[in-house]
Amino acid sequence: MTKPSSARSLALGAIDRVEEPNGGQRAEARDAGRRCHQACRRLTQPHRERGDSASPEQVLAAARDFSEHRAQIWPNVEAKRLEVHERGDTWAVVTEGTMVVGVFWERCRYDWSEPTQLTATVIESNVFKPGSSWQLQATPRDGAGSIVATTVLRDYRHGFKGTFARSVNHLGGKRLFGWFLRRALAAIEKTPTDGGRTA
Predict the structure, then answer these.
(1) Which of 76, 151, 162, 173 is most exposed, with minimal Cβ within 10 Å?
(2) What Rg value do the Cα atoms of the chain yield, rounded?
(3) What does the alpha-carbon distance between residue 176 and residue 134 come to, in Å, rounded to a whole number?
């Protein structure tokens, strides 16, 4: 006959064995929810456009032009909110901003060490988390002009501005980035060729 204390120990052991898988499942569910939350806060948007007359060199030169002329090319830049902090031969640290719902700003490290592309990585921003990025690639198109592709990776900060930007980009990011790139290319094509501004 099993002693009461032994029976109780066996029963508790059985309960532990039953509950352990459920605990593991709960942990997996928590991890899945955390991954889903992170994914929902992160947006990756690839986009591709054709430049009818602007060469890849012109497009890339405009992307690394940090003079006041930049505000005439890129819709999200205001000249008064543009500041170059440091610059090297193939990189620059720049703060840019514009009015949306209040001022949206970001300080990025731009890198153009690769001959056909430029990447801007967020160092600090009131909208995006550090590590968010924007990449532009420009390659020749058959005949004339260029093929321009952008990839935007945004991880949004907590708070009103980050939440607002995330909502807008999730609802209409594809159209927004398409408009952004088409407008920039149209402005580049209207800019007189002067060997490529890099001020």
Answers:
(1) 76
(2) 25
(3) 14
